[in-house]
Design goal:
This protein has about 260 residues and is α/β, with parallel strands linked by helices. Helices cover about 40% and strands about 20% of the residues. The protein has helices at about 50-55, 80-95, 105-115, 140-150, 155-160, 170-185, 185-195, 215-220, 225-230, 245-250, 250-260; strands at about 10-20, 20-25, 35-40, 60-65, 100-105, 120-130, 200-205, 235-240. It has an 8-stranded mixed β-sheet with strand order 1-2-4-3-5-6-7-8, sandwiched between helices. The longest helix is centred in the N-terminal third of the chain and has 14 residues, at about 80-95. The N and C termini lie close together (about 5 Å).
Length: about 260
């Protein structure tokens, strides 16, 4: 792969404006292939430190906190399309023409969508235990999701310090989760998979996660087989022992290897 798709940049940390807010961004700089990391629903950029350390300084690592996460500002818009605009703004601000996108959970969906929409700007995509089709979201499940976040809301201040919650209300947390699951419906996600023409790698976890039944999660992951069979650009790089929540901390090596496969 041609690594000279972006000019060398100096290391930089600062704020990037988008819509009605500003995002905290870190760019390690250098002349290596740019790798842009896309966080889980309520996570911050700190979760990528092990993957970045494993890949080393041969790459240009760009991380950022999405709206109301980490050190970024709050916003009036937390929809998925707002997250797409956030990614566009970060790439433009840092002068990135083409990049490898690495997304975990919610970030995996963002990576898949952006790659499908912008094949000429995507050197490759790595989806870490996210962006998998399912149809289990119905009106009753939506009610359960909203109840879950109301029940968890007293823990938000503690979770924020761990990078596991945003500066949002329980309602806003729930709606982000619901919208993501709506995007996972086969009617919504399968056409995205079919449009992907860039090399894409999946790294899957094992078992469940907070609010996710292990059997259900494994069924979702098994469904990726049909996608891989249908689109030769999408491949499974690894299935690792860690669960969804611990995969970036325990199996960061597998994520780094998937990036290497694309570079």
């Amino acid at each position: 792969m041609n690594t000279q798709t972006n000019s060398a940049r100096s290391a930089w940390t600062g704020m990037v404006s988008v819509d009605d807010t500003a995002l905290a961004v870190t760019d390690t700089g250098g002349a290596g292939i740019p790798v842009v990391y896309l966080n889980g629903s309520y996570a911050d950029q700190s979760h990528w430190k092990h993957v970045i350390a494993e890949l080393g300084d041969g790459y240009r690592h760009i991380t950022y906190d999405e709206r109301a996460r980490g050190k970024s500002g709050t916003s009036s818009d937390y929809t998925f399309e707002a997250s797409v605009r956030s990614l566009d703004a970060v790439l433009a601000a840092r002068g990135v023409e083409r990049a490898i996108l690495v997304g975990w959970s919610y970030g995996a969906m963002l990576a898949i969508h952006w790659a499908a929409r912008n094949p000429e700007r995507t050197l490759g995509a790595v989806a870490v235990d996210g962006a998998m089709t399912h149809e289990w979201l119905d009106d009753a499940t939506k009610v359960q999701v909203r109840k879950l976040f109301r029940r968890l809301s007293p823990l938000f201040p503690i979770c924020r310090r761990l990078g596991l919650a945003a500066r949002m209300s329980a309602v806003q947390h729930a709606e982000i989760n619901i919208e993501l699951n709506e995007l996972c419906a086969p009617a919504a996600l399968d056409p995205v998979f079919d449009r992907i023409t860039t090399q894409t790698r999946y790294v899957l976890a094992t078992g469940g996660n907070l609010g996710g039944d292990p059997k259900v999660m494994e069924q979702l992951r098994a469904g990726l087989g049909a996608v891989v069979a249908r689109n030769p650009n999408i491949k499974l790089s690894a299935k690792v022992p860690s669960n969804h929540s611990k995969i970036l901390r325990k199996d960061f090596g597998a994520v780094a290897n998937a990036v290497r496969e694309l570079s």
